[in-house]
Amino acid sequence: MAAGAIAQSVKVGYVSLARIEKESAASQHALAVLKQEFEPRHQQLLEFQKRINAAREQFGKDRERLTSVEAQAKGRELSDMMRQSDQTAAQLSEAFELRRIELRSRLIVEVRAAITSVAEAGQFDLVLQEAIFAGPGIDITELVLKEMARRGG
């Protein structure tokens, strides 16, 4: 009986981090920052790849008319361009991922601060971010979203 009385006095809340990442202004801002930072570099890479494809097509057309030395030089030039494109793509992907992780870490700090504020104001004993099942009665995600909006995040 004592265990049942203790269980009834515990106030539990659940927060859906996936929903916060999808709906919060802070998350939307982070996505916009990523796009703004990386879209120009992505476009440059696409343009470079288009130039490589055009050079490859031209090489295919001109190959018969080129001397073997010229064909080898053009082939090396194309290989160098493709290698440079691959390296640039890998570097861009790595930089994007590092920046995404950095922005997500900042978001998590904001989310935790909002959760703590909501938990303290609502006198929650326990707030979970992951659960196999959480009934709608303990879902405080909306309160956390409102708290983040109030804080400017």
Pick out its properties.
single chain, 153 residues, mainly alpha, Protein Binding, DinI Protein, Chain A, two-stranded parallel sheet, 77% helix
Blueprint (SSEs and pairs):
Layout lengths: L1 H8 L2 E3 L2 H7 L1 H38 L5 H54 L4 E3 L12 H11 L2
Parallel strand pairs: 1-2
Helix pairs in contact: 2-3, 3-4, 4-5
What report would you give on this structure?
This protein has 153 residues and is mostly helical. The protein has one domain: Skp domain (Protein Binding, DinI Protein, Chain A), CATH 3.30.910. The chain is 77% helix and 4% strand. It has helices at 2-9, 17-23, 25-62, 68-121, 141-151; strands spanning 12-14, 126-128. A two-stranded parallel sheet has the order 1-2. Helix 3 packs antiparallel against helix 4 (68-121). The chain starts with a helix and ends with a helix.
List low-confidence stretches: none
Order of helical and strand elements: HEHHHEH
Count every helix, treating DSSP H or I runs of 4 or more residues as helices: 5
Gap from first CA to last CA:
44 Å
Mean pLDDT figure? 92
CATH class: Alpha Beta
Biggest sheet, open or closed, and with what strands and sense?
A: 2 strands, parallel
- Return the domain count: 1
Determine the CATH topology.
Protein Binding, DinI Protein, Chain A
